[in-house]
Please model this.
Amino acid sequence: MARDRWHIVEEAGVLTVARRWPARFDVAARTVLPVVNKMRLARQVRQDVWRALRRLKGFAPVVRVAPEGGMLAVTAGGQVDGPVARAQAEAKIARVLADAGNRQRWIRWAS
Model:
């Protein structure tokens, strides 16, 4: 299902928000957060990852949120059409996911 040109799919409790479908993770990083509204969380993470990687040519964001042991496992990254310095891109994504200010804002917004 596409909403505002985004593909939003939830299967078996796993929410995936992607610019292109099928979703593909050429670059990705992962974190675990408390249980909150998955859609609101995915939207905020996607926006911040996009801001960090918007200059990466051919980048199309993907965020997957899945329940894991009473928490939510968030995988963020996306598809990159063309050459990419994978380690650098994944380090940027990891910094976004690890940033304490981002995490507090996401949890507050999605609660």
